[in-house]
Amino acid sequence: MLLNTPVKESENISLEGAVQINHSSFFVYKDNNGKTFLKTGRDEKIHKSLVQKMIDLNPHIARLLKRYHIKPLIDTKTLRELTNGHMNDTCNIAIGVYSMLPVEIQSKLNKTILKEASMLHDLGKVLIPSKILNKPAKLNVKERKIMNIHSTLGYELLKTQNLSDDTLTLIRYHHQNLKHTGYPVLPKDNTFADLGVQIISIADKYSALREARVYRRRLTRTEALLILYREVREGKIMPSVYNALFKYAEMNDID
What we know:
Mean pLDDT: 89
CATH class: Mainly Alpha
CATH topology: Hypothetical protein af1432
CATH superfamily: Hypothetical protein af1432
């Protein structure tokens, strides 16, 4: 049974995944007594404590931060805002896109994994400096390289927890595309799951385009869909996934 119960910051807890209840996202935790409970993005002390444990469990994270000259600061305010906003919205859109796909395509995906990965896809941004995340202008080359490691950071953080390999793969490569020109670079022995990544990627981009950002206004539904259609024409997005987004947006998104 999942409970939203008090938990001490010092308790030995692990992240089991994420769920949605009434279109709101929750982190699923388990304590050292085996009790499973839910926490929202507002529970910043709990999340900060666990993220620090993730860093301690995986030395590669410290090396990655050092390589990019990033101080190991955990931005729980960003996590709260993402959880209550963009990550939750991306999940809603991803499941909406999934629901609009033909049944034969839906059968190729695990809906639970798709939902979990879309709720956790941007967790790595808790380690990206806020001056880069919230810069009111275009990022320079150095800043863009730092921003682009957020998906790798999310993967490295979450691989220390009890998440499936399929969920981790979707989180790691949610900025890849059909031409494999996104990031991070795919391994040569690639077993890349294009369809799941395509859905999370297009949901992520559509959500971001429909949000007001410090460097631009909120785009209309039509403007956002036109921008994404260019990527279809460039061979980066599956037409079937774009068509599913178009149907979802027409039915559920009001300009």
